[in-house]
Amino acid sequence: MANVENDLKNKKVLVTGGAGFIGSNLVDALIARGDEVIIIDNLLTGKKENLNPQADWQNVDIRDLEKIKPLFIGVDYVFHLAAFARVQPSIEDPVTFNAVNLDGTLNVLTAARDAGVKKVVYSASSSAYGDQDIMPLKEDLPAKPQSPYGLQKYVGELYCRLFSDLYGLPTVSLRYFNVYGQRQALEGAYTLVMGIFIRQRLNNEPMTITNDGEQRRDFTYVGDVVRANMLAAASDKAAHGEVINIGRGRNFSVNELAAMIGGPTRFIGERPEPRVTLADNSLAQELLGWTPSMELPDWLEKYKKAMGLG
């Protein structure tokens, strides 16, 4: 299955959130293989400079079903990445996050069903696991979300499976683990720890660490996530609402990440968060033929040099 993601060349595909970090990288890869790509993105969190000029960008909101429905007509595959994607902001504003992450997902599934789309690939989140005692995290563990965001992304998975069971819409849900890579956010409420650290170093500020810094995260390269999406669309083994981990299967502590970036650190107090994330990615290998390729230290060295931190 090494090249199965190329089996869908020259298809018409729709990417929600195609101006975002992961979405824009996916759009570039889809266009590079010859697909016709429609992007739905209202730029609430995405960036205009991320938009591929060869894609058909539609500045609409997934919360508006009537406006997005016509865009699904004639589409072969949908990659649903549009979301408000951070834990702490979802705690502060659960209503808005619910409207985007849950109502928006229901709208995307409804539009895809009505248009006869061949498959929806849903971007889920390892936040659905919450804090677990068993490592590595396997897909059959009970979900224990600890935030509105984690709950909403988990319910999105259930909606995908329901639409497969009830309406025959092929779906698959990919649970991402701490994605990093080119175009990762350095500013704003949706910035992950690596982006925060890089921004702080660029500003000659100490890197701020919560708790004791020994919390461990499974950092996963965006190019590997893009490849997982393309494989998921092509796979005939994943079309009935399956939930699949997309994680490197190796983790690093926040303190180790700070040491790799280099520079002073400052501890800023306690914050509730899972102690460890670590993906069991054997199901991705079995159903998608996917294995991760990038090692965090290797990529980070090149990135630091490109950012002037090497």
TrEMBL record:
Domain annotation NAD-dependent epimerase/dehydratase: ranges: 13-247
Family matches, as Gene3D superfamilies: NAD(P)-binding Rossmann-like Domain, UDP-galactose 4-epimerase, domain 1
Pfam families in the cross-refs: Epimerase
PANTHER family: BIFUNCTIONAL POLYMYXIN RESISTANCE PROTEIN ARNA (PTHR43245), UDP-D-APIOSE_UDP-D-XYLOSE SYNTHASE 2 (PTHR43245:SF13)
Protein name (record): NAD-dependent epimerase/dehydratase domain-containing protein
Species this chain originates from: Candidatus Falkowbacteria bacterium CG23_combo_of_CG06-09_8_20_14_all_49_15
